[in-house]
Specification:
There is one protein chain. With 342 residues, the protein is α+β, with helices and mostly antiparallel strands. The protein folds into two domains: 2-67; 76-337, Oxidoreductase, molybdopterin-binding domain (Sulfite Oxidase, Chain A, domain 2), CATH 3.90.420.10. The protein is 26% helix and 19% strand. It has 13 helices and twelve strands. It has helices at 2-14, 21-25, 32-44, 48-53, 58-67, 98-102, 117-121, 145-149, 181-188, 209-213, 227-230, 283-287, 330-333; strands spanning 130-135, 141-144, 158-165, 170-180, 196-201, 222-226, 236-241, 244-245, 255-257, 270-276, 311-314, 320-322. A hairpin with a 2-residue loop joins strand 7 and strand 8 (244-245). The protein is globular, with a radius of gyration of 21 Å.
Length: 342
């Protein structure tokens, strides 16, 4: 059996056929051409059809491990949702393959190795999980999973195709599922003196190897948006990706996505949102202010101390392109920063 498994893993190395994310939405049927290619490789190894049908087959297990929702099938009936076609990627871009996007992640709570995050994150428990929203609000609330997947927000869920830009100069294009963050804030009713929204991620020194080992950081992760940024229609409270719930490496069970900013401004796996009056600190700006600005809007004219930001590389296609101010969303958000740091 061990020899059989090694042969299958070797075959995977010879023939890598990524599964398009919309294949999953269409019932996860493998196209005939791909099936036959897999079959011929296994036949050459003497494994026959048994390996094709085996639940231990690496063809299926690796894909499922990479992309499976952290909540399993509990909220599978909520996906997929209608797409909001207002938000376009641009003629020079296509959606990044799901396996590529799911195996290239920054999540220091688990590890600094991008290609290892999914392996460490895939079995992390996210049920139960709550989100406390408090501070300068008239109606503070603690939301549970059912509140945000099946409650009053269920009809607000939509899919949006967004460009995603990392401060490290790599980019991808992602189909997120969520609703505008302002809809959540409308429920708690921020006070008139509220100016900032602070986000706090989870802390688990025993269960998260990155937090346990990287003791020099001030865990848990925390971020912030100005309230006009937070209530902007682009800012998405996100619960899904590629037509299903979030896998843990993408920030399950929910995260924020602000696509005109560098990726670290879109905090993952939130447990707390606090509405405040004074400008709060943020994790990377507090840790390394010379490298990470507070607003951190995508800006080709503002180099990182260790590299230019004029160019980016698409992790899916490998294409290198010029960076667009505000990641291409300037016509929607530039007015927020008149006279301010972008």
């Amino acid at each position: 059996m061990a020899t059989c498994r090694l042969q299958v893993e070797y075959a995977m190395g010879l023939v890598h056929i990524p599964k398009a994310w919309n294949e999953r939405r269409a019932g996860r049927t493998t196209p005939e051409g791909i099936y036959l290619q897999r079959r011929e490789v296994l036949k050459a190894l003497g494994l026959g059809t048994l390996a094709l049908g085996s639940p231990q087959s690496l063809w299926a297990s690796r894909d499922d491990d990479l992309t499976r929702p952290a909540l399993g099938r509990r909220f599978a009936d909520r996906f997929p949702v209608p797409r909001n076609e207002i938000y376009e990627l641009g003629d020079d871009r296509t959606l990044t393959d799901e396996l590529t996007a799911s195996s290239h992640n920054n999540f220091y709570e688990f590890t600094v190795a991008k290609d290892k995050v999914w392996q460490l994150a895939r079995d992390y428990p996210v049920d139960p999980w709550t989100l406390r929203v408090h501070g300068l609000v008239h109606e503070p609330r603690t939301f549970g999973l059912d509140d945000l997947f099946r409650g009053s927000f269920r009809e607000a869920l939509e899919e949006r195709h967004y460009r995603f830009r990392c401060v490290e100069r790599w980019s991808m294009q992602v189909p997120w599922t969520g609703f505008p963050l302002r809809k959540l804030l409308d429920v708690v009713k921020p006070m008139s003196k509220a100016r900032w929204i602070r986000f706090i991620s989870f802390e688990d020194r025993q269960g998260l190897p990155g937090q346990r080992k990287q003791t020099w950081y001030e865990w848990p992760y925390y971020e912030a948006l100005r309230i006009d940024e937070a209530v902007h229609d682009l800012t998405l409270f996100t619960v899904g990706i590629y037509g299903h719930g979030l896998p843990m490496q993408h920030g399950a069970p929910w995260r924020i996505v602000a696509p005109w900013k560098y990726g670290f401004k879109s905090p993952k796996s939130l447990v707390e949102i606090e509405v405040v009056e004074g400008r709060p600190g943020t994790f990377w700006n507090d840790s390394e202010p010379e490298e990470y600005g507070f607003f951190s809007n995508v800006d080709p004219g503002q180099p990182h101390p260790r590299w230019t930001q004029r160019f980016e590389t698409d992790i899916g296609s490998g294409a290198t392109r010029e960076t667009q101010p505000y990641n291409g969303y300037g016509d929607l958000v530039a007015h927020l920063y008149d006279g301010d740091e972008i």
